[in-house]
Design goal:
The chain is α/β, with parallel strands linked by helices. The chain has 25 helices and 34 strands. Among the domains are: about 20-140, Rossmann fold, CATH 3.40.50.980; about 525-595, ACP-like (Non-ribosomal Peptide Synthetase Peptidyl Carrier Protein, Chain A, Orthogonal Bundle), CATH 1.10.1200; about 605-855, Rossmann fold, CATH 3.40.50.1820. About 35% of the residues lie in helices and about 20% in strands. Helix 22 (about 745-755) packs antiparallel against helix 23. The longest helix is centred in the last third of the chain and has 23 residues, at about 760-785. One of its GO terms (cellular component) is cytoplasm.
């Protein structure tokens, strides 16, 4: 259907229909075809077009545009490859054209110089030029080359895996049929364009007539943001997950810490490209059971870039073993285990050998390199063509099992990396005598023997890191550099990995060595060390030791971040946490996230908790929502509803409001002498936040109980200052509070909510006393504030007065009072729960829906 959405580009907040998509593709193809052929001799090999565009709808349009112009596409991972590598790829494959976009060119000025090398087509410009009436897409034959994907080579020169349309289409068509995929499929496109899982993301989706949902580039590199991926899956009802196992592991960790879990829309998972943790299917089953999802499946897939994405698969939905099988061949493909490269006969059942792939999916060869092609594509004694994968394996009579690498390359996050390529870069350094790069616990570690004339290793390390970052993809840059006296060798002269020392230095040359234990200097650092230890990482009690050198990985980082967020009511950035590494640096980030926003902010009695999703920070908000705490609570009381609101109103910036007294001095009670003064400081903050946008966003003030009254008073202050608010939403607010006979019962409820049913430890008792003092002071301020006194105009903003469906004992105003206080006062007496539960737990989503409606134009 032409009007169906083909691509959702979350990062750009754009979507395009199939009609728009194919129109754009034809325009790009026409621009490519309009480029005159080179004056050089007869072209060697297929016509190639390099796609040098970061993940976006423009990238996908570029891929299809190249094909419709009769060319194969060469994917360039512009987000991760340095300039030197991109230029080397372009020099190697001499494309007819380079496809770019406005965004890619703007963020990488050096790309302007590419115009001197080869014609450049800007997709954003090309789609504005109507195609010629006579334009016809170039006819494509099954044997034509569809794409050339670069893999690492030991010399540093890229190897181009050449795949035909027939080979790729066989894999894609087989899987569509196997899984009964149709136009309802919605795929989350996580994989980089240079990783062949992206071939399936694009072409499986388009062939089915489904939707490809693209996450923001910033959520993929340099550090993944699984919380945002999870949000995208919920919001856009993603049905199909296709990634390396590590990415699903991260999302499961995020879902396990979320009230919402996984969305029920997810019903098919494809995992491939790296080792699969046998515990993963069980964790997924638990989450899907929580979601009450039915008829979902998880498949483990295997194969090689040289064999058109995948060649085998197995349903592991019910898997509960210790070793995940590699699976069985897909239609028109075959898998064999041969004895060795010198003996290509089949290995006996149960005997280890090398896994080989056969069938329609095999590559044509390595682009322009006949010698490498002959070494990789061989002929078995029975005449069948084989691709030798370099993976050790065995066949048990039913399934193939993989036993690790036999050849030189390794996998990092699904990407193929040649350690020898990295070694060559390191050994070329004047101060390096020997080098060995190995994979340790999922990260690359470079062991270095320095020249006798070398100065400090810290200087050498910094120089080596700079060399690697300038010449290698980001995923191929070693995480750690370790100085050793000699590289241990085995009897056959190869690096003896088992005798390489454990990592003893941190990844940062400025960090303290492990042996120098730096003790915590305050309670925050002590608490962070406790959290780190509780998650199974031993930093020897030192706040200066990197958690990643001590065994922490990306999953650990995510769990650490989420626990700190829960404990401190903050939002942290996983990328910055990776960069920090040690407990002292992490503590500094916690302080910053908790509200230390400059010297002026330190004097404020209010602090903000940002409940907005990460993807709202790159665009100006359409609305700002301030959620004020109730008596005896902090802004965290709004945490669940605030995050639900971020999902329901993605253009809104959502903040919880706390006064600092409840999180600092137990004797302070409340830091304001009156509600009017509280409202004045809140108005200052609201105006400051909204003033950061070029066009003023709508402001919605909301609060529960005491916070509702403050919100109303703040709206009055802002209108007097000439900046009206869009709406005020009060959840069971005691306007014109009268003395209540239930005060002591309410105090007991507040204390119990904080301290728990059994009273608990001294710390909990102190917190309960703090909450009681805060509650009593808030009640005193409520009793001293009567909005009917003092005169003034009726509030111009819409007031939404939300009351529990079961009735309220906080409604002190008459209908006449309400009419006099606001031009529009709407009562909503349908909220589930009672005064104490109406915005939390199971009622949080309903409260968020009420707030989302208030953010709309017709509030």
């Amino acid at each position: 259907c032409a009007s169906k959405v083909a691509i959702i580009d979350v990062g750009r907040n754009e979507s395009i229909t199939y009609a728009e998509y194919w129109s754009h593709v034809r325009c790009v193809a026409h621009s490519i075809q309009s480029i005159p052929d080179s004056d050089s001799a007869e072209p060697q090999g297929p016509c190639l077009v390099a796609v040098v565009i970061e993940k976006s709808w423009q990238q996908t349009v570029g891929v299809l545009g190249a094909m419709h112009a009769g060319c194969a596409y060469v994917p360039v991972y512009v987000e991760a490859w340095p300039e030197d590598r991109i230029r080397k790829v372009l020099d190697t494959f001499t494309p007819k054209a380079i496809l770019v976009s406005d965004g890619t060119m703007a963020s990488r000025p050096w790309m302007q110089t590419l115009r001197d090398l080869v014609p450049v087509v800007n997709v954003d410009a090309a789609i504005l030029v109507p195609e010629a009436p006579s334009f016809l897409p170039a006819p494509l034959e099954p044997e034509d080359v569809a794409y050339v994907i670069c893999t690492s080579g030991t010399t540093g020169a890229p190897k181009g895996v050449t795949i035909t349309h027939k080979a790729a289409l066989n894999t894609i068509s087989s899987l569509i049929k196997l899984h009964d995929l149709d136009a309802s499929v919605n795929v989350l496109g996580l994989s980089a364009i240079s990783f062949d899982l992206s071939v399936s993301d694009i072409f499986t989706t388009l062939r089915c007539g489904g939707t490809l949902t693209l996450p923001p580039v910033q959520s993929l590199t340099p550090h993944p943001d699984p919380r945002l991926w999870l949000h995208i899956c919920h919001r856009y009802e993603v049905s199909h997950w296709n990634s390396v196992p590590a990415f699903l592991d991260l999302v499961l960790t995020a879902a396990e810490s979320s009230d919402d879990g996984l969305p029920a829309s997810l019903d098919l998972f494809w995992l491939s490209g790296d080792r699969l943790d046998p515990r993963l299917p069980g964790r997924l089953r638990q989450l899907m059971h929580r979601t009450a999802a039915k008829d979902w499946r998880i498949w483990a897939m295997g194969g090689a870039t040289e064999a058109s994405i995948w060649s085998n698969g197995i349903d592991i939905t019910a898997f509960d073993g210790s070793i995940v099988p590699y699976g069985r061949p897909l239609p028109n493909q075959g898998m064999r285990v041969v004895r060795s490269r010198g003996d290509l006969r089949d290995a006996e059942v149960g005997v280890k050998g090398e896994i080989a792939i056969t069938g329609l999916g095999l590559m044509e060869g390595y682009y322009g390199d006949d010698a490498k092609t002959r070494a990789a594509l061989v002929t078995a004694p029975d005449g069948e063509r084989l691709y030798l994968t370099g993976d050790g394996g065995s066949f048990d009579g039913e399934n193939i099992f993989i036993h690790g690498r036999l050849s030189g390359y390794i996998k990092v996050r699904g990407f193929r990396v040649e350690p020898e390529e990295i070694n060559r870069k390191l050994r070329a350094h004047a101060k390096v005598d020997r080098a060995a790069v190995v994979l340790r616990d999922g990260v690359l570690v470079a062991y270095i023997v320095t020249d006798a004339e070398a100065a400090s290793f810290a200087e050498v390390e910094a120089e080596l890191r700079e060399v690697c970052q300038g010449a290698l993809p980001s995923y191929a840059v070693p995480a750690s550099f370790v100085e050793i006296d000699a590289i241990p060798l085995s009897t056959n002269g190869k690096v003896d990995v088992s005798n390489l020392p454990a990592i003893k230095t941190t990844t940062s040359s400025t960090s303290a060595p492990v042996d120098d234990v730096v003790l915590p200097r305050d309670d925050l650092e002590r608490s962070i060390l406790k959290v780190i230890a509780g998650l199974g990482v031993d930093v020897s009690g030192s706040v200066a030791r990197s958690v990643f050198d001590a065994g922490g990985d990306s999953v650990f980082a995510l769990r650490l971040m989420m626990q700190l967020e829960r404990e401190h009511g903050i939002r942290m950035n996983v990328g910055r946490l990776f960069a920090a590494g040690d407990a002292r640096s992490i503590a500094a980030q916690v302080r910053e996230a908790a509200g230390a926003r400059g010297a002026g902010d330190a004097q404020r009695r209010l602090e903000l908790l940002d409940f907005s999703l990460d993807n709202t920070s790159s665009t100006e908000p359409s609305a700002i929502v301030l959620l004020v705490h109730g008596a005896g609570t902090s802004g965290l009381v709004w945490a669940e509803a605030g995050r639900h609101l971020s999902e329901a109103a993605p253009g809104a910036k959502v903040y919880g409001v706390s006064d600092r007294s409840i999180t600092s001095d137990a004797r302070a009670g409340l830091g304001f002498p009156s509600i009017q003064e509280y409202a004045s400081e809140l108005a200052d903050m609201a105006l400051e936040i909204s003033g950061k946008s070029s066009s003023p966003p709508r402001i919605v003030l909301a609060g529960w109980s005491f916070g509702g009254v403050v919100s109303f008073a703040c709206a009055r202050v802002m209108e007097r200052r000439g900046r009206g608010v869009h709406a005020v939403v009060m959840f069971d607010a005691p306007m014109a509070q009268q003395a209540s006979p239930h005060l002591e019962a309410a105090v007991a409820k507040v204390r119990a909510a904080v301290q728990g049913p059994s009273g608990g430890a001294e710390e909990a008792s102190q917190l309960a006393a703090r909450a009681e003092g805060h509650f009593r002071r808030c009640i005193a301020l409520l009793e001293a504030y009567d909005p009917r006194k003092g005169g003034g105009r009726a509030l111009a903003a819409t007031v939404v007065d939300v009351r529990p469906a079961g009735g309220s004992d906080c409604d002190w105003l008459s209908a006449g009072d309400k009419d006099a206080l606001a031009a529009s006062w709407r009562v909503d007496a349908t909220a589930p729960g009672d005064h104490w539960s109406m915005i939390t737990g199971g009622n949080a989503r309903g409260a968020a829906a009420t707030l989302a409606r208030a953010c709309q134009d017709n509030a």
